[in-house]
Amino acid sequence: MAGFEGFEKRLELHFIGHDPTTLQLGLRKLDFHCIQQTLQAVQCSVVSALGNSFFDAYVLSESSLFVYPTKIIIKTCGTTQLLKSITPLIFYAHTHLGLTLSSCRYTRGNFIFPTAQPFPHTSFNDEVTYLETTLPTTLCFRKASIMPSKSSSLAWHVFTATSHLHHHPYAYTLEICMTDLDPTLAAKFFRRPADGKSGHSAGKEMTAATGIGEINEHALVCDFAFDPCGYSMNGMDSEWYSTIHVTPEEGYSYASFECVGHVSGDDVDVDIVHVLRKVVQIFRPGTMSVSTTSLGNNEVWREVAGAVEPMGLKLRSCAVDQFPECGSVVFQTFTPIRRKSAH
Ligand SMILES: C[S@+](CC[C@H](N)C(=O)[O-])C[C@H]1O[C@@H](n2cnc3c(N)ncnc32)[C@H](O)[C@@H]1O
């Protein structure tokens, strides 16, 4: 591979069950061995873990895993085979906990090095065929879509399948992908050679030095700095997670930010304008895409351009798509108003 593939694949699985005692902790009760076996199929491993009363968050060698009682979110980058986690997860959830898969959402951007991806990630067609044949037929509301932008190198791939309507009417997920990071800012995600620090202590320093710690000062943060470079963090704020991953190498630099939130009435629980501006300030990307998934009728995406444009980025495209029983996705892309000077 010419460089590290930063663009993540993201899988969200929801389960249902009938035993209320099992449902209290649900998937969080799975043995660590089951998680390790699943991650082995994907070809990544756990580097750090943290839990609160709502969910468990794992930093992986390639991105992150979040385990809630009835929901799992796995996000992996590089040449991992994320979709290979589906069969073991369905099996463990059913045999160990009596839980049944009720919905699946798979999303990703455009790979920087598509030819380096192994099956089933060789193309979106292959991924969709794999999903169609691996998922139980009870997940009968299905749709696959490639949401375009003005640039052929920026598209958002979405597959959803569900067996029933979900009741999270005001929840949303924000997935931000950034490339061509400002080199001076990206340099902060490199370690000094032989710094004698652990990945955890170097990660903590990066969280403070880059301003990542100021995105949500209430969050419990689990951070990790790779050697010689690269950074991952998970934030936990009651039931809401956030996550950042950085590949700082010049030529294929990439960073992602993701968070979930909810809207009640006119109130958004996360100050989305503050979050977006902080993210732009920390990375100063040459391209930025923002995908907002809303399971109900909320309009968080409308605030995105208003937050980002005063920071010197211009909205270049906006695509909207609806997914049967799985809400809507808005895909917005931005590039700087002024071209960056050559470094
Ligand atoms: C796992 S992290 C962050 C992942 C995230 N999806 C991204 O690319 O932004 C990837 C960065 O860490 C670096 N890295 C160093 N050691 C690594 C390791 N053992 N596994 C994965 N990445 C490693 C990679 O070169 C890359 O810069």
TrEMBL record:
The active site is at S63 (schiff-base intermediate with substrate), C77 (proton donor), S232 (proton acceptor), H245 (proton acceptor). InterPro entries: AdoMetDC-like (IPR048283), S-AdoMet_decarboxylase_euk (IPR001985), S-AdoMet_deCO2ase_core (IPR016067), S-AdoMet_deCO2ase_CS (IPR018166). Binds 1 pyruvoyl group covalently per subunit. It catalyses: S-adenosyl-L-methionine + H(+) = S-adenosyl 3-(methylsulfanyl)propylamine + CO2. The keyword S-adenosyl-L-methionine applies. Its EC number is 4.1.1.50. Pathway: Amine and polyamine biosynthesis; S-adenosylmethioninamine biosynthesis; S-adenosylmethioninamine from S-adenosyl-L-methionine: step 1/1. Pfam families: SAM_decarbox (PF01536). One of its GO terms (biological process) is spermine biosynthetic process. GO terms for molecular function: adenosylmethionine decarboxylase activity. PROSITE patterns: ADOMETDC. One of its GO terms (cellular component) is cytosol. Keywords: Autocatalytic cleavage, Decarboxylase, Lyase, Polyamine biosynthesis, Pyruvate, S-adenosyl-L-methionine, Schiff base, Spermidine biosynthesis, Zymogen. It is an enzyme of class 4 (lyase). The modification Pyruvic acid (Ser) is found at S63. Substrate binds at F4, E62, F226, E249. SUPFAM superfamilies: S-adenosylmethionine decarboxylase. Its cofactor is pyruvate. The record marks E62, S63 as: Cleavage (non-hydrolytic). PANTHER family: S-ADENOSYLMETHIONINE DECARBOXYLASE, S-ADENOSYLMETHIONINE DECARBOXYLASE PROENZYME 4. NCBIfam families: SAM_DCase. Belongs to the eukaryotic AdoMetDC family. This is S-adenosylmethionine decarboxylase proenzyme.
